[in-house]
Amino acid sequence: MTEALAPFQRLEHQSVLFEDGLALDCGAVVMPLKVAYRTYGRLNAARSNAVLVCHALTGDQYVAERHPLTGKPGWWEAVVGPGKPIDTDRYFVICANVLGGCMGSSGPPEEMTDAEGRGLGRPWGTDFPSITIRDMVRAQKRLVDHLGIGRLLAVVGGSMGGMQVLEWAATYPEMMVAAAPIATASYHSAQNIAFHEVGRAAIHGDPDWKGGRYWEDGRIPAKGLSVARMVAHITYLSEAALTRKFGRKLRGASALTFLEDVFEVESYLRYQGSTFVRRFDANSYLTITRAMDYFDLASEHGGEVAAAFRGSPIRFLVTSFSSDWLFPTVESRALVRALNAAAANVSFIEIATDKGHDAFLLDEPVFHRALGGFLQGAAERAGV
Amino acid sequence: MTEALAPFQRLEHQSVLFEDGLALDCGAVVMPLKVAYRTYGRLNAARSNAVLVCHALTGDQYVAERHPLTGKPGWWEAVVGPGKPIDTDRYFVICANVLGGCMGSSGPPEEMTDAEGRGLGRPWGTDFPSITIRDMVRAQKRLVDHLGIGRLLAVVGGSMGGMQVLEWAATYPEMMVAAAPIATASYHSAQNIAFHEVGRAAIHGDPDWKGGRYWEDGRIPAKGLSVARMVAHITYLSEAALTRKFGRKLRGASALTFLEDVFEVESYLRYQGSTFVRRFDANSYLTITRAMDYFDLASEHGGEVAAAFRGSPIRFLVTSFSSDWLFPTVESRALVRALNAAAANVSFIEIATDKGHDAFLLDEPVFHRALGGFLQGAAERAGV
User: Fold this and answer.
1) Separation between Cα atoms, residue A347 and residue A316, nearest integer Å
2) ipTM of predicted assembly, 2 dp
3) Which domains does chain A have, with CATH numbers?
């Protein structure tokens, strides 16, 4: 491609190419299919110790190592690593950049291809087909096959990662021993769709988005994407967390000014927005938020979530966080009821915390002990 | 002014001009001060039956009559009118457009003046000084004086209107018999500031905002203001209300599309955004949201809310709504505790509803009976 490249497009990622492509729910085929991924730990001889980690909306495959773009620690180093709940001394951990993402898997910023898979010299942009959570999972399944793993010890993920866990369990129940959907739900709620729509409207409204063709002049819709990130970020935190972090603390003097940031929380949000645009693609954000909005397990299974899990051999651990208002405990309870109705093997924990949705990424010892113990139990039963 | 006028600037409003201007908390003086207002019902001979209604962020003085711009009913006709809780057969109801607003009171879209009050042939725009809720209340006080009313029977308002009620009670306790702050709090929370900041960032990011000078070419920052309205609108509803209204209902076919609105809730929000920009000024939105963010009664009274009300002769009715997450009941309870600590006369009701913050504007019979009874009691004690 000859156009200006965003920083995330200039990176080299470990990836695998599937020349035959991937047929999507919408009817289109992405050909070839590229899946970028990282692994941690060693696959044992029996190939029985693999744990697939599914990332959230703005996550990526760099789970437990320095991020190549930001230089920050991996997004789940609190949970994945030597001696951690997902113990890389014991398990072989796989994480793939989701289909539609912007860190090396097939997605809007990658080079567009024709029906025969020939490169067209421009990014997909908004011509990238609509995808679903199930499409993401199908792409991961190709990777798992490619790695020669017939059965995963566990599939684990939070938020949109949890949606993928549920879709994995519904679609490939024989390919996994255990499933840990965290801070998630069996559908995306009207309120969550609404918040996503605000973010999309902000991106669409940015003239630098240029109908999705912003690569043409090397500018990105930074303001729109930043606003999208700001509103999403609020939903990841609780009121208590925001208050503890910032309260009504003023920046510097308490002068009444019209334009400047006045409160600490404003500067923080603006900072969140401005750093995000350097590492994430606006068209990927549109694609992935839409995939989340489409997610509704019941509608894929005759209107009943339980039907997705009937006869499932999988052991489930469902986790919610008490102050999470994006995926509130009530939605996890509904999921647990459906799993029980399907006679599935399910445990449920609600972690008491005031950290909001983000708690699944943070230092939550009770959650970490529960997840670690759950995986250990699965490993023992599987003879790992 | 020679520039293109927005629809709300072409209206004629009933108003009063105070040539000596208004000194603001920030140190600036708005000269002259214009207060646009509407009244309903008749002032009795004793001038003792006046009820001041304070409007919310995007409300205006057209409480109980057809709106001159939208043609819709007044914003509080459920509550104000003949035989309604605020009974215009019995009370003389006053409502002023807030200082900083865009329906005729001094504010960003009005003509800018110099220190001597001479018109400068352009709107204030972002040169309008920073204002506070207390400044709004001081402007209303001038109107009440002008109307020859020494003591209001009650000051009533919801949301930002409730902030004004509290500020009235703290600043002019001898000028009112009763106060009904509704769906409000004694301070604006970090989360609410954060949501406001998203809206402001969306307006600032719209190139048509032009640093606030959008009147110069007759365009308005419609996309940014629309996004601001969309995110605010979500916070006015509850998840239950959104789900009841829209759930995950798709518009028309369930085709997977990239750009179009797919869910009903999206179309609704976009509609809310697009209609709002025709009736509201972006710079007013910036000014007023900032005034709300500054609001913190405790900080104005030595760090203690109770200090604002010590020895107050006013009777208070504090109302919250169970599903309001913008001004949750817990904040009303804190206010009630402070009023009790000040030995004030206070009643508190939490209305059970799933309609969210917007409930204060809607058909809520229990709330309406309580408010009507409260005013009637105040009127009887005041000999009205």
Assistant:
1) 6
2) 0.90
3) 7-188+297-381 (3.40.50.1820), 192-290 (1.10.1740.110)
